Amino acid sequence: MDIVIIILKVIGSVIGLIFLEMVTVTFIPGMMVPEQSLEVAAQPAGEIDTKPPAGREDVSFEVKGTSLSAWLYLPEDVSTQVPCIIMGHGFGGTKDMLLEQYAVRYQAAGYAVLAFDYRHFGESGGEPRQLMLLSYQLEDYRAAIQYARGLEEIDPARIALWGTSASGGYGIAIAADDSTIACVVAQCPGLDHDASSKMFMKQLGLRHMFRLFFHGQRDMGRSRVGLSAHKIPIVGKPGTFAFFPLANAYDGYSKLASKSFVNQVCARVILRSGGFDPSKAIRNVSRPVLVQICEYDSLAPISPETEIELRQYADVKRYPIGHFDIYIGEHFETAVSDQLEFFKKNL
Q: CA-CA distance, 201 to 213, in Å (whole number)?
């Protein structure tokens, strides 16, 4: 009986300490993280021209009462229904950051394209701003598919999904549940959670991971009691505090970010991104998949073991470049050419 009482007291003490820690992290002052501006060039590589291209329309659709902003690109000939490529941007990005340079190439090849901002980002609605939740973004992507299928110009049986970086695995996860998707492109995708965790641990260390965890706790705790969101920079220079305080990430975002890009994310993303494993979901995808791997990827690495498994289910192409190189210059041209060849065969 005494042992039971002792055990109950220990458990009670542990629960009390955990509760105290959570309350302290949620309400303690002094945890605000300074904003970090990017050293954006006069014309970043990922920024669109001021004048919209011919055939681009501003459209919108709703998810649970929140309006999502999108661009619909239609080819010149829509006398019959055309295939449509639905595009999702990467971590913290917006549709005006990178997607148009791809969309106009697909449009010229005779495809329609739907590029959209996830809830809480860019021109889409949603509060708090910069809230990235995996479940929300997958829901938004599915809503984009439903919207595209309802357009008279679009062939609902020929829908392709395209994602890059953080959203690179979204199309695979969705196609695993929706066999009517025609094909999927995953560019420098975040498919291997274990490989990414090991890389960041090696680059940033345990102390940084603990700091991220505490900031995530603070944001989550504040959301539960109706307080303002706690945000941290997405990228930062080495020695500062950010989700990715890495020189290559900071430089990469600086080269690609549009003027509308906000270098912040609600810190709770740290606690809400586990369990997503599209590298396993690909086993259930019955349609063609193209996976484009950057060999020296600093943000979304894929281990040799995972790559071997992917090759059983997908057309895998490797490029001897880093994560951000695929968006620029000759490497962009190579990647887009491979994508267009893939779409020609499967869309």
A: 13
| Helix ranges, the chain (H) | 2-27, 99-108, 134-149, 170-177, 193-224, 247-256, 278-281, 304-310, 329-346
Using only the alpha carbons of the chain, give its radius of gyration: 21
Q: How many CB atoms lie within 10 A of CB 80?
A: 7
The Cα–Cα gap between 131 and 68 comes to 14
CA atoms within 13 Å, Cβ hemisphere of 347: 30
Residues 42-84: pLDDT tens digits? 555 555 556 788 889 999 999 999 999 999 999 998 899 999 9
**3-12, 40-49, 225-234, 319-328: range with lowest mean pLDDT:** 3-12
Q: What is the pTM of this model?
A: 0.89
Task: Decide if 267 is inside a domain.
Answer: no
User: Which residues form the domain of 336?
Assistant: 56-193+276-346
Tell me the CATH number at 182: 3.40.50.1820
Domain total for the chain?
1
* Identity at 168, one-letter amino acid code: G
Residue 62 domain flag: yes
pLDDT tens track for 151-193? 999 999 999 999 999 999 999 999 999 999 999 999 999 998 8
Widest CA span in the chain: 83
Q: Does the residue 261 lie in any domain?
A: no
| For residues 270-280, average pLDDT | 77
Residue 128: cis peptide before it, omega within 30 degrees of 0: yes
66-73, strands of its sheet edge to edge: 56-63, 66-73, 112-116, 82-88, 154-164, 183-187, 289-296, 315-322
The neighbour count for residue 244, using CB atoms within 10 Å, is: 21
| 187 located within any domain | yes
